[in-house]
Amino acid sequence: MGEWTTTSLAIGRGNSLDIHREIHFPHSLGLLYSAFTHYTGFKVNSGEYKVMGLAPYGEPRFADKIKEHLIDLREDGSFRLNMAYFDYCTGLTMTNSRFDELFGGPARKAEAQLTQREMDLAASIQAVTEEVVIQLAKGIRKSTGQRNLCLAGGVALNCVANGKLLRENVFDRIWVQPASGDAGGAIGAALGAYHLMLGRPRTVGQGDAMGGSYLGPAYGQSDIEARLRRAGAVFTTLGDDALIDATADALARGCAVGWHQGRMEFGPRALGGRSILADPRSPSVQKQLNLKVKYRESFRPFAPSVLREDVQDWFDIDVDSPYMLMVADVAQSRQSPMTAEQQKLFGIDKLNVPRSSIPAITHVDYSARIQTVHADTNPRYHRLISRFKELTGCPVLVNTSFNVRGEPIVCTPEDAFHCLMGTGIEFLAVGNCVMRKEDQDPALLRDYRNAYELD
Q1: For 137-154, what is each residue's pLDDT tens digit?
Q2: Among 61, 227, 277, 403, which is 20 to 30 Å from 74 by CA?
Q3: Helices and strands per DSSP (H, E), number in the chain
Q4: How many angstroms separate the CA atoms of 124 and 122, rounded?
Q5: pTM for this prediction
Q6: What 3-state DSSP class applies to 342?
Protein backbone atom coordinates (compact mmCIF):
# COMPACT_ATOMS: atom_id res chain seq x y z
CA MET A 1 0.00 0.00 0.00
CA GLY A 2 1.50 3.31 -1.01
CA GLU A 3 0.79 6.77 0.35
CA TRP A 4 1.12 9.60 -2.10
CA THR A 5 0.43 9.01 -5.77
CA THR A 6 -0.97 5.49 -5.79
CA THR A 7 -2.25 2.82 -3.45
CA SER A 8 -1.15 -0.39 -5.14
CA LEU A 9 -1.81 -4.06 -4.56
CA ALA A 10 0.77 -6.32 -6.16
CA ILE A 11 1.15 -10.09 -5.96
CA GLY A 12 4.62 -11.59 -5.90
CA ARG A 13 5.47 -14.93 -7.45
CA GLY A 14 9.11 -15.94 -7.53
CA ASN A 15 11.01 -12.90 -8.76
CA SER A 16 7.97 -11.28 -10.44
CA LEU A 17 5.57 -8.68 -9.08
CA ASP A 18 2.20 -8.20 -10.79
CA ILE A 19 -0.12 -5.27 -10.11
CA HIS A 20 -3.54 -6.57 -9.05
CA ARG A 21 -5.30 -3.22 -8.58
CA GLU A 22 -4.61 0.43 -7.77
CA ILE A 23 -6.21 3.54 -6.30
CA HIS A 24 -4.74 6.63 -7.95
CA PHE A 25 -3.93 10.16 -6.77
CA PRO A 26 -5.59 12.31 -5.48
CA HIS A 27 -7.55 9.57 -3.70
CA SER A 28 -5.05 8.78 -0.95
CA LEU A 29 -5.56 7.56 2.62
CA GLY A 30 -2.22 9.12 3.54
CA LEU A 31 -3.29 12.51 2.21
CA LEU A 32 -6.60 12.28 4.08
CA TYR A 33 -4.65 11.66 7.30
CA SER A 34 -2.26 14.50 6.44
CA ALA A 35 -5.22 16.84 5.97
CA PHE A 36 -6.16 16.23 9.60
CA THR A 37 -2.51 16.58 10.61
CA HIS A 38 -2.61 20.08 9.13
CA TYR A 39 -6.04 20.86 10.55
CA THR A 40 -5.05 19.89 14.12
CA GLY A 41 -2.03 22.21 13.92
CA PHE A 42 0.87 19.87 13.16
CA LYS A 43 3.27 19.77 10.23
CA VAL A 44 2.30 17.66 7.23
CA ASN A 45 4.80 14.87 6.45
CA SER A 46 6.23 14.95 9.97
CA GLY A 47 3.42 15.37 12.48
CA GLU A 48 1.20 12.46 11.50
CA TYR A 49 2.58 10.31 14.30
CA LYS A 50 1.58 13.07 16.75
CA VAL A 51 -2.01 12.75 15.57
CA MET A 52 -1.80 9.00 16.13
CA GLY A 53 -0.38 9.57 19.63
CA LEU A 54 -3.04 12.18 20.43
CA ALA A 55 -5.97 10.01 19.34
CA PRO A 56 -6.39 7.98 22.58
CA TYR A 57 -7.04 11.21 24.49
CA GLY A 58 -10.15 11.89 22.41
CA GLU A 59 -13.43 10.37 21.28
CA PRO A 60 -14.13 9.63 17.58
CA ARG A 61 -17.19 11.88 17.46
CA PHE A 62 -16.32 13.18 13.97
CA ALA A 63 -15.83 9.73 12.39
CA ASP A 64 -19.32 9.53 10.89
CA LYS A 65 -18.97 13.03 9.47
CA ILE A 66 -15.67 12.05 7.81
CA LYS A 67 -17.26 8.99 6.22
CA GLU A 68 -20.37 10.90 5.17
CA HIS A 69 -18.63 13.88 3.57
CA LEU A 70 -14.93 13.15 2.90
CA ILE A 71 -14.47 9.52 1.90
CA ASP A 72 -16.60 7.04 0.00
CA LEU A 73 -15.52 3.61 1.30
CA ARG A 74 -16.69 0.62 -0.70
CA GLU A 75 -17.22 -2.94 0.53
CA ASP A 76 -13.95 -4.18 -0.98
CA GLY A 77 -11.95 -1.43 0.77
CA SER A 78 -11.47 0.75 -2.28
CA PHE A 79 -12.34 4.39 -1.76
CA ARG A 80 -12.60 7.86 -3.25
CA LEU A 81 -12.15 11.22 -1.55
CA ASN A 82 -14.54 14.13 -2.02
CA MET A 83 -12.08 16.67 -3.40
CA ALA A 84 -14.51 19.56 -2.78
CA TYR A 85 -13.09 19.72 0.77
CA PHE A 86 -9.38 19.61 -0.07
CA ASP A 87 -6.91 22.05 -1.61
CA TYR A 88 -3.75 19.96 -2.00
CA CYS A 89 -4.17 19.36 -5.74
CA THR A 90 -4.19 22.98 -6.87
CA GLY A 91 -3.61 25.18 -3.81
CA LEU A 92 -1.05 25.76 -1.07
CA THR A 93 -2.87 24.13 1.85
CA MET A 94 -4.25 20.68 2.56
CA THR A 95 -7.83 21.80 3.27
CA ASN A 96 -10.14 24.64 2.26
CA SER A 97 -12.90 26.81 3.75
CA ARG A 98 -15.52 24.14 3.13
CA PHE A 99 -13.50 21.73 5.30
CA ASP A 100 -13.32 24.43 7.99
CA GLU A 101 -17.08 24.90 7.86
CA LEU A 102 -17.68 21.15 8.12
CA PHE A 103 -15.63 20.83 11.31
CA GLY A 104 -16.57 24.12 12.94
CA GLY A 105 -13.71 26.54 12.38
CA PRO A 106 -10.22 27.12 10.97
CA ALA A 107 -7.20 24.88 11.50
CA ARG A 108 -5.42 25.18 14.85
CA LYS A 109 -2.30 27.35 14.79
CA ALA A 110 0.83 25.46 15.77
CA GLU A 111 1.45 27.71 18.77
CA ALA A 112 -2.13 27.43 20.08
CA GLN A 113 -2.93 25.14 22.98
CA LEU A 114 -4.40 21.74 22.20
CA THR A 115 -8.06 21.38 23.11
CA GLN A 116 -10.47 18.48 23.41
CA ARG A 117 -11.62 19.27 19.86
CA GLU A 118 -8.19 18.42 18.38
CA MET A 119 -8.07 15.24 20.46
CA ASP A 120 -11.48 14.21 19.14
CA LEU A 121 -10.48 15.03 15.56
CA ALA A 122 -7.34 12.87 15.99
CA ALA A 123 -9.40 10.00 17.43
CA SER A 124 -11.84 10.30 14.52
CA ILE A 125 -9.35 10.21 11.65
CA GLN A 126 -7.47 7.41 13.38
CA ALA A 127 -10.67 5.37 13.67
CA VAL A 128 -11.55 5.94 10.01
CA THR A 129 -8.00 5.04 8.91
CA GLU A 130 -8.16 1.78 10.86
CA GLU A 131 -11.53 0.96 9.28
CA VAL A 132 -10.21 1.60 5.76
CA VAL A 133 -7.03 -0.44 6.33
CA ILE A 134 -8.98 -3.42 7.71
CA GLN A 135 -11.64 -3.21 4.99
CA LEU A 136 -8.97 -3.01 2.30
CA ALA A 137 -7.11 -5.98 3.76
CA LYS A 138 -10.28 -8.07 3.89
CA GLY A 139 -11.03 -7.17 0.27
CA ILE A 140 -7.52 -8.17 -0.77
CA ARG A 141 -7.74 -11.51 1.02
CA LYS A 142 -11.12 -12.25 -0.54
CA SER A 143 -10.13 -11.30 -4.09
CA THR A 144 -6.67 -12.91 -4.13
CA GLY A 145 -6.72 -15.75 -1.61
CA GLN A 146 -3.23 -14.71 -0.50
CA ARG A 147 -2.23 -15.61 3.06
CA ASN A 148 0.73 -13.26 3.63
CA LEU A 149 0.69 -9.45 3.49
CA CYS A 150 3.60 -7.02 3.12
CA LEU A 151 2.94 -3.35 3.84
CA ALA A 152 4.92 -0.27 2.81
CA GLY A 153 4.20 3.41 2.28
CA GLY A 154 3.64 6.13 4.84
CA VAL A 155 0.30 4.74 6.08
CA ALA A 156 2.13 1.52 7.01
CA LEU A 157 3.92 3.53 9.74
CA ASN A 158 0.56 3.81 11.51
CA CYS A 159 1.44 1.11 14.00
CA VAL A 160 -1.92 1.37 15.79
CA ALA A 161 -3.73 0.42 12.58
CA ASN A 162 -1.14 -2.32 11.98
CA GLY A 163 -1.79 -3.79 15.43
CA LYS A 164 -5.54 -3.81 14.91
CA LEU A 165 -5.12 -5.42 11.49
CA LEU A 166 -2.95 -8.11 13.10
CA ARG A 167 -5.65 -8.87 15.67
CA GLU A 168 -8.28 -9.20 12.93
CA ASN A 169 -6.44 -12.35 11.70
CA VAL A 170 -7.19 -11.51 8.08
CA PHE A 171 -3.76 -12.78 7.01
CA ASP A 172 -1.59 -15.52 8.46
CA ARG A 173 1.47 -13.28 8.50
CA ILE A 174 2.01 -9.52 8.18
CA TRP A 175 5.37 -7.88 7.49
CA VAL A 176 5.86 -4.11 7.48
CA GLN A 177 8.82 -2.44 5.77
CA PRO A 178 10.73 -0.69 8.60
CA ALA A 179 11.48 2.38 6.45
CA SER A 180 7.97 2.67 5.01
CA GLY A 181 7.58 5.82 2.96
CA ASP A 182 10.02 7.57 0.67
CA ALA A 183 13.17 6.06 2.25
CA GLY A 184 11.99 2.48 1.79
CA GLY A 185 10.90 3.28 -1.75
CA ALA A 186 14.58 3.31 -2.68
CA ILE A 187 14.85 -0.34 -1.62
CA GLY A 188 11.79 -1.19 -3.70
CA ALA A 189 13.25 0.55 -6.73
CA ALA A 190 16.55 -1.29 -6.36
CA LEU A 191 14.86 -4.65 -5.90
CA GLY A 192 12.57 -3.92 -8.84
CA ALA A 193 15.54 -3.24 -11.08
CA TYR A 194 17.42 -6.31 -9.81
CA HIS A 195 14.57 -8.80 -10.21
CA LEU A 196 12.21 -7.35 -12.83
CA MET A 197 14.67 -5.64 -15.18
CA LEU A 198 17.71 -7.87 -14.78
CA GLY A 199 15.74 -11.07 -14.17
CA ARG A 200 17.83 -12.14 -11.17
CA PRO A 201 16.32 -14.96 -9.08
CA ARG A 202 14.80 -14.24 -5.69
CA THR A 203 15.84 -16.38 -2.73
CA VAL A 204 14.37 -16.31 0.76
CA GLY A 205 16.61 -17.24 3.67
CA GLN A 206 15.94 -18.00 7.30
CA GLY A 207 15.64 -15.23 9.86
CA ASP A 208 15.51 -11.47 9.36
CA ALA A 209 17.12 -10.72 5.99
CA MET A 210 17.19 -6.99 6.86
CA GLY A 211 19.34 -7.71 9.89
CA GLY A 212 16.99 -5.91 12.28
CA SER A 213 17.22 -2.81 10.04
CA TYR A 214 20.69 -2.05 11.41
CA LEU A 215 22.01 -0.99 8.03
CA GLY A 216 23.59 2.40 8.73
CA PRO A 217 27.12 3.49 9.67
CA ALA A 218 29.10 2.02 12.57
CA TYR A 219 32.29 3.20 14.28
CA GLY A 220 35.25 1.16 15.53
CA GLN A 221 36.32 1.48 19.16
CA SER A 222 39.59 3.33 18.46
CA ASP A 223 37.75 5.74 16.16
CA ILE A 224 35.10 6.36 18.85
CA GLU A 225 37.76 7.19 21.44
CA ALA A 226 39.59 9.57 19.10
CA ARG A 227 36.37 11.36 18.18
CA LEU A 228 35.28 11.74 21.79
CA ARG A 229 38.68 13.14 22.81
CA ARG A 230 38.49 15.74 20.07
CA ALA A 231 35.02 16.70 21.28
CA GLY A 232 36.36 17.24 24.81
CA ALA A 233 34.51 14.31 26.41
CA VAL A 234 35.63 12.79 29.70
CA PHE A 235 35.02 9.05 29.40
CA THR A 236 36.02 5.63 30.70
CA THR A 237 36.57 2.63 28.45
CA LEU A 238 35.12 -0.60 29.84
CA GLY A 239 35.11 -4.23 28.85
CA ASP A 240 31.93 -5.70 27.42
CA ASP A 241 30.61 -7.14 30.70
CA ALA A 242 31.44 -4.01 32.68
CA LEU A 243 29.76 -1.83 30.04
CA ILE A 244 26.52 -3.82 30.31
CA ASP A 245 26.66 -3.79 34.11
CA ALA A 246 27.33 -0.04 34.36
CA THR A 247 24.56 0.86 31.89
CA ALA A 248 21.98 -1.47 33.45
CA ASP A 249 22.84 -0.07 36.88
CA ALA A 250 22.39 3.51 35.64
CA LEU A 251 18.98 2.57 34.21
CA ALA A 252 17.91 0.85 37.42
CA ARG A 253 18.91 4.00 39.36
CA GLY A 254 16.56 6.08 37.20
CA CYS A 255 19.04 7.72 34.82
CA ALA A 256 18.15 8.76 31.30
CA VAL A 257 20.73 6.89 29.21
CA GLY A 258 22.07 7.62 25.72
CA TRP A 259 22.88 4.36 23.91
CA HIS A 260 25.02 4.62 20.74
CA GLN A 261 26.02 1.14 19.60
CA GLY A 262 26.87 -0.65 16.36
CA ARG A 263 25.24 0.22 13.09
CA MET A 264 22.63 2.96 12.91
CA GLU A 265 19.01 2.02 12.20
CA PHE A 266 17.50 2.43 8.74
CA GLY A 267 14.07 4.00 9.08
CA PRO A 268 12.26 6.36 11.45
CA ARG A 269 12.42 4.23 14.61
CA ALA A 270 15.26 3.95 17.09
CA LEU A 271 15.78 0.21 17.61
CA GLY A 272 18.64 0.04 20.09
CA GLY A 273 21.40 1.41 17.87
CA ARG A 274 20.83 5.13 18.48
CA SER A 275 18.42 5.19 21.43
CA ILE A 276 17.63 7.06 24.61
CA LEU A 277 16.73 4.49 27.26
CA ALA A 278 15.03 4.64 30.65
CA ASP A 279 13.30 2.56 33.33
CA PRO A 280 9.67 1.90 32.31
CA ARG A 281 8.58 1.25 35.92
CA SER A 282 8.89 4.93 36.82
CA PRO A 283 5.58 6.86 36.74
CA SER A 284 7.42 10.14 36.05
CA VAL A 285 9.73 9.03 33.22
CA GLN A 286 7.28 9.66 30.35
CA LYS A 287 6.71 13.28 31.28
CA GLN A 288 10.33 13.93 32.29
CA LEU A 289 11.78 12.54 29.05
CA ASN A 290 9.38 14.59 26.97
CA LEU A 291 9.99 17.88 28.78
CA LYS A 292 13.64 17.65 29.88
CA VAL A 293 15.31 15.41 27.30
CA LYS A 294 13.28 15.49 24.09
CA TYR A 295 11.88 19.02 24.63
CA ARG A 296 8.56 18.10 23.07
CA GLU A 297 4.86 17.87 23.90
CA SER A 298 4.11 16.12 27.18
CA PHE A 299 1.35 13.90 25.71
CA ARG A 300 3.73 12.02 23.39
CA PRO A 301 3.98 8.31 24.31
CA PHE A 302 7.17 6.28 24.49
CA ALA A 303 7.71 2.76 23.21
CA PRO A 304 8.98 -0.35 24.99
CA SER A 305 11.84 -2.58 23.95
CA VAL A 306 11.14 -6.05 25.30
CA LEU A 307 13.04 -9.33 25.06
CA ARG A 308 11.34 -11.42 22.38
CA GLU A 309 11.20 -14.42 24.68
CA ASP A 310 9.29 -12.40 27.32
CA VAL A 311 6.93 -10.38 25.14
CA GLN A 312 3.82 -12.49 25.74
CA ASP A 313 4.21 -12.20 29.53
CA TRP A 314 4.05 -8.41 29.34
CA PHE A 315 1.96 -7.59 26.26
CA ASP A 316 -1.04 -8.99 24.42
CA ILE A 317 0.99 -10.12 21.44
CA ASP A 318 3.12 -13.14 20.56
CA VAL A 319 4.62 -12.35 17.16
CA ASP A 320 7.87 -10.69 16.15
CA SER A 321 7.75 -6.89 16.09
CA PRO A 322 11.42 -6.00 15.57
CA TYR A 323 10.77 -2.67 13.85
CA MET A 324 8.40 -1.13 16.43
CA LEU A 325 5.53 -1.13 13.93
CA MET A 326 2.89 -3.04 15.89
CA VAL A 327 0.80 -1.76 18.79
CA ALA A 328 -0.70 -4.09 21.38
CA ASP A 329 -2.16 -3.75 24.86
CA VAL A 330 -0.13 -4.25 27.99
CA ALA A 331 -0.97 -7.68 29.42
CA GLN A 332 -4.03 -7.66 31.67
CA SER A 333 -1.97 -8.99 34.58
CA ARG A 334 0.31 -5.93 34.37
CA GLN A 335 -2.47 -3.33 34.10
CA SER A 336 -3.61 -1.09 36.95
CA PRO A 337 -7.40 -0.55 36.93
CA MET A 338 -8.56 3.06 37.03
CA THR A 339 -10.71 4.33 39.87
CA ALA A 340 -14.19 5.69 39.21
CA GLU A 341 -12.84 9.22 39.65
CA GLN A 342 -9.96 8.64 37.22
CA GLN A 343 -12.34 7.27 34.60
CA LYS A 344 -14.17 10.62 34.60
CA LEU A 345 -11.04 12.48 33.44
CA PHE A 346 -10.94 13.94 29.95
CA GLY A 347 -8.19 14.70 27.46
CA ILE A 348 -4.70 15.47 28.68
CA ASP A 349 -5.75 15.03 32.33
CA LYS A 350 -5.53 11.29 31.66
CA LEU A 351 -1.76 11.58 31.22
CA ASN A 352 -0.75 11.46 34.87
CA VAL A 353 -2.75 8.35 35.78
CA PRO A 354 -0.43 5.29 35.95
CA ARG A 355 -1.97 2.51 33.88
CA SER A 356 0.30 -0.45 34.63
CA SER A 357 3.42 -1.69 36.41
CA ILE A 358 5.36 -0.19 33.47
CA PRO A 359 3.60 3.19 33.27
CA ALA A 360 6.31 5.00 31.28
CA ILE A 361 5.42 3.02 28.14
CA THR A 362 1.69 2.47 28.74
CA HIS A 363 -0.47 4.87 26.75
CA VAL A 364 -3.77 6.18 28.10
CA ASP A 365 -5.67 3.38 26.33
CA TYR A 366 -3.35 0.70 27.86
CA SER A 367 -1.54 0.25 24.54
CA ALA A 368 2.17 0.25 23.68
CA ARG A 369 4.18 0.41 20.44
CA ILE A 370 6.29 -2.70 20.82
CA GLN A 371 9.81 -3.54 19.72
CA THR A 372 10.80 -7.16 20.25
CA VAL A 373 14.56 -7.45 20.79
CA HIS A 374 16.27 -10.51 19.31
CA ALA A 375 19.63 -11.90 20.39
CA ASP A 376 20.64 -12.74 16.83
CA THR A 377 20.14 -9.24 15.34
CA ASN A 378 21.21 -7.02 18.28
CA PRO A 379 23.09 -9.14 20.84
CA ARG A 380 24.47 -6.20 22.85
CA TYR A 381 21.07 -4.57 23.32
CA HIS A 382 19.59 -7.97 24.17
CA ARG A 383 22.29 -8.43 26.82
CA LEU A 384 21.58 -5.00 28.30
CA ILE A 385 17.85 -5.68 28.69
CA SER A 386 18.62 -9.14 30.07
CA ARG A 387 20.91 -7.61 32.70
CA PHE A 388 18.27 -5.00 33.56
CA LYS A 389 15.82 -7.88 34.01
CA GLU A 390 18.26 -9.57 36.40
CA LEU A 391 18.46 -6.37 38.48
CA THR A 392 14.77 -5.46 38.44
CA GLY A 393 12.70 -8.43 37.27
CA CYS A 394 11.55 -6.36 34.29
CA PRO A 395 12.63 -7.36 30.72
CA VAL A 396 11.44 -4.03 29.27
CA LEU A 397 13.12 -0.65 28.65
CA VAL A 398 11.77 2.69 27.49
CA ASN A 399 13.26 3.26 24.04
CA THR A 400 13.03 6.54 22.17
CA SER A 401 15.10 7.99 19.36
CA PHE A 402 18.41 9.61 20.34
CA ASN A 403 17.64 13.22 19.44
CA VAL A 404 15.65 16.23 20.55
CA ARG A 405 12.52 17.37 18.76
CA GLY A 406 13.17 18.69 15.27
CA GLU A 407 16.74 17.32 15.15
CA PRO A 408 17.83 14.23 13.20
CA ILE A 409 18.72 11.11 15.16
CA VAL A 410 22.37 11.22 16.20
CA CYS A 411 24.74 9.39 13.88
CA THR A 412 28.34 9.96 15.02
CA PRO A 413 29.92 9.66 18.47
CA GLU A 414 30.30 13.46 18.50
CA ASP A 415 26.58 13.85 17.84
CA ALA A 416 25.84 11.63 20.83
CA PHE A 417 28.17 13.59 23.12
CA HIS A 418 26.71 16.94 22.05
CA CYS A 419 23.21 15.60 22.77
CA LEU A 420 24.39 14.52 26.24
CA MET A 421 25.63 18.04 26.87
CA GLY A 422 22.49 19.74 25.54
CA THR A 423 19.74 17.70 27.20
CA GLY A 424 18.77 16.03 30.47
CA ILE A 425 20.54 12.77 29.56
CA GLU A 426 22.69 11.74 32.54
CA PHE A 427 24.67 8.73 31.27
CA LEU A 428 26.03 7.95 27.81
CA ALA A 429 27.44 4.73 26.36
CA VAL A 430 29.15 4.97 22.97
CA GLY A 431 30.74 1.69 21.99
CA ASN A 432 32.65 0.66 25.11
CA CYS A 433 33.05 4.25 26.32
CA VAL A 434 30.84 5.52 29.13
CA MET A 435 30.33 9.15 30.16
CA ARG A 436 28.50 10.73 33.08
CA LYS A 437 27.12 14.25 32.81
CA GLU A 438 28.61 15.36 36.13
CA ASP A 439 32.14 14.46 34.96
CA GLN A 440 32.06 16.71 31.90
CA ASP A 441 33.48 20.21 31.44
CA PRO A 442 30.63 22.68 32.21
CA ALA A 443 31.93 24.95 29.46
CA LEU A 444 30.76 22.34 26.92
CA LEU A 445 27.14 22.42 28.07
CA ARG A 446 24.67 23.41 25.34
CA ASP A 447 21.08 24.60 25.41
CA TYR A 448 19.09 22.47 22.96
CA ARG A 449 15.73 23.57 24.32
CA ASN A 450 15.15 26.20 21.63
CA ALA A 451 17.77 25.10 19.10
CA TYR A 452 15.22 23.43 16.81
CA GLU A 453 11.67 24.38 15.94
CA LEU A 454 8.80 22.03 16.61
CA ASP A 455 8.57 19.20 14.10
Answers
A1: 999 999 999 999 999 999
A2: 61
A3: 14, 15
A4: 5
A5: 0.91
A6: helix
